[in-house]
Write a structure and sequence with these properties.
Layout lengths: L5 H8 L4 H10 L5 H10 L5 H7 L3
Helix pairs in contact: 1-2
Length: 57
């Protein structure tokens, strides 16, 4: 889930590209699925193989 901030809401209303919206969300601290999976690997919750399997780039 992404918390829609005022800035993100404005970008959506102005029909910004999905890349620009994703960049803004990341700048605001949102982690994408791949980043979250790799954090779980570091924490020892899952394996790198599993993270790679479910988050193919």
């Amino acid at each position: 889930m992404v918390k829609i901030t005022d800035e993100l809401a404005n970008m959506i209303m102005e029909e910004a590209s999905s890349i620009k919206i994703a960049q803004q969300a990341q700048a605001e601290g949102f982690r994408n699925l791949r980043q979250s999976a790799l954090l779980k690997v570091i924490e020892g919750v899952t394996s790198l193989e599993e993270a790679n399997r479910v988050t193919k780039d």
